[in-house]
Structure formats: C-alpha cells, structure tokens
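Minutes, project check-in

Agenda point 3 was the complex the collaborators sent over. CS summarized: four entities, 336 residues total, and the question is how they sit relative to each other. Sequences were read into the notes so everyone works from the same version.
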Amino acid sequence: MRPKALATTAPREGVRERILEAALDILRESGIQGLSQVQVARRAKVRQSHVTYYFPRRHDLTEAVTVRFIDNMVSALQEVAARATSRKRDALLRRAEEAITDPGHMRMFTGVIVEADTDPELHTVLVRETKRLQSALTHLLGDDKREPAASLLASLWGRGLYAFVIRK
Amino acid sequence: MRPKALATTAPREGVRERILEAALDILRESGIQGLSQVQVARRAKVRQSHVTYYFPRRHDLTEAVTVRFIDNMVSALQEVAARATSRKRDALLRRAEEAITDPGHMRMFTGVIVEADTDPELHTVLVRETKRLQSALTHLLGDDKREPAASLLASLWGRGLYAFVIRK
DNA sequence: CGGCACTGTTGGTAGTCTTACCAATAACGC
DNA sequence: GCGTTATTGGTAAGACTACCAACAGTGCCG
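CS then shared the predicted structure for the full assembly.
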C-alpha cells in the first residue's frame, strides 16, 4: 500500500542524548530486561524508529549506555574526592561504597554484565571501562600494597551484590 | 484447519528431570538470555510444548532451576567437607572459592539475579536459597566473629564477579 | 534565486522469537 | 472399559529489532 501524505515535524535537538539518558533510566529502574527500544522511546518521548536511527544496532545502545554508566560512577567518585572535608581513607571509602552498592547501580551493573556475556564487543568495552573505574578508585584512595585496587573493587562489588540479592 | 491423524509415542521417563537438567546446562553455558523453551527443549530432546507441560509458566522453570542450582552448590560444599584431607580453614575456603568463582557458576548466578529482579516470587526463592547456601558455608567453615557468614559470602561473590567480568 | 545533498522525522512493516495454549491421540493403571 | 497422564503438532498473541519509502527542514554552491 502506498503511504498517504505523511506529516513530519522539525528536527529536535539533543534527541540522541535524550535517548541515551532514557536508556540509563530504564536500565536503572527496570534492569536489562526492560531495556527495549519501545520502552526507551516512550521514556525519551520519541518514536521507536528514532532509537534505531541513532543506535542502529542494539549493541550501539548498550555500549553507549555502558560507557556513560561507568562515566557517571567515575564522576561521582571524583566529586566525593573533591568535596570531602576529611581526607581519611575510611571516610572516602565509605562514600565510594555507598555509591557502588546503591541498588540502582547494582541493577545496571548486573544487567550490563549479563548483556556483555552474549556480546563479545560489549564485553571488551566493559573490561576497559572497569579498569578506568579501578583507576579512579585507586586515585581516590591511593594504592595500598595490602589491598590493591582490584581486590578493593571486588570487595565493594561483593558487598553490593550481597545487599542487592538479599534486599527486601 | 483440522489436524490430520497425529502420531504420538509412548511416555518417556524422567522427562521433567531431563528438561530441568537441560535448563541448567543452558543457563550455565549461555546465561539467562539463552534460557528459552525452544533451546531447553532442543537440549533435552523433547518438544517445546513439553516444557510448558511440565513447567506451565516461565517462572516455574526458573524457580526450579534456581533451587537446583543452589542445591548443587551446597552439595559441592558438603563434598568438599567430606573429602578434605585437611581440616584447615584456609584449604576448605580455597575449595569453596574455586566452586563459587567458577565462570559457569557466576553466569548462572548473575542470570538468576537478573531474572529475580523482575520476578518477586523468584526473588523470595533466591533469598531463601541464598540463606541456605550461607548456612552450608557456615557449617563448612565454622562461624567466625571476625568474618561472619554474610560477609564471607559477599567476599566470595565479589571475587567471583570480578573474575567473571575481567575474564579473557 | 534555484537546485541539490544531507540529516532528521514519520508511520508502517517484515521477520524473528517468545510464551502459552489447544484438540487430538496414545499409553498406562485400575 | 475408563479415567488419568503424557505426547504431538500446530497456533494465537505479543514483543522485539531492524528496515524502508516518503517527506521535511537546513545549508551550501552556483
């Protein structure tokens, strides 16, 4: 069937950014299972076809989301470092733990892990971004021979995961 | 359209069990994203409709899988305890860590967590089963005032998760 | 100014995958 | 024989990604 005259509207600004932010919101609130083009589009108030337009493959969206997700965490850590009244390692560590063990954060994290498990390219990105996060953590807390950055991150993840699983 | 004469065969034994085992295999190798009725059925060499017959809702399968999954881990821990030549806490702990940080195990675990996040009933089951696992761990290693079972499990999960994310 | 290329938007759809369901049939236990 | 359970093939209904043609706006170049 030949389409009738179609109504279109003027290009809007920041559509890609709106989509990306919507995707992050969805991932934070509904997890990876809820991260579909339709839900993202609804949240960003755009057409579903826009999502395909700006992120032609699902992978393009999940990759952008992953990078932004870690970016946000790194920024949060830097902000903690900047605003901290005390430079005590314990206090900084507590703030870092609060951020990393936040349920929304863990939901995004577990979602990304599961997605990356069936998407080798995304897995590469996740590894790279994780190392960035690890560097930021090291920079914030200083390296410690007795508790190197990797082991520290693992410890934070473990507590976060435990709280996420057991949560009411 | 009226179906033609249908060929059926004799009931086979252990179909439910085969389906359950197949589901565990799929979850271990392909993660929660691969856990579909069609894939499980193919693996178990049964029809897709069998999966619905024995597990009417997706939840019924995921719940059974979750319980079995933790069962297996608890059994493995008990076996470690039974066969251990040394009773040293360190040696036992190392075996427990090997089991829990196995990639297949972490794949199942992360999958179940993500699934439970959108299935409140499954979440309840996961919490209950986690506590069972925790008890088994406590029983194996003995409780320690300085490192209670919860914190120990979190630590194992953290190292497992880290290894799972960073793995080549 | 006119044409032209490029980007963005729209509505729709093709094709795949998924769970759940169904009627018909067969086998089994009693 | 009869009720129950198991098996079969098929389908309904929905969700999803990816793609498409048509159209609109924008900017550039002659």
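Noted in discussion: Residues 1, 3-4, 6-12, 15, 46-47, 49-50, 53 of chain B lie near DNA strand D (CB under 10 Å from a C1').
Follow-up: revisit at the next meeting once the mutant set is ready.
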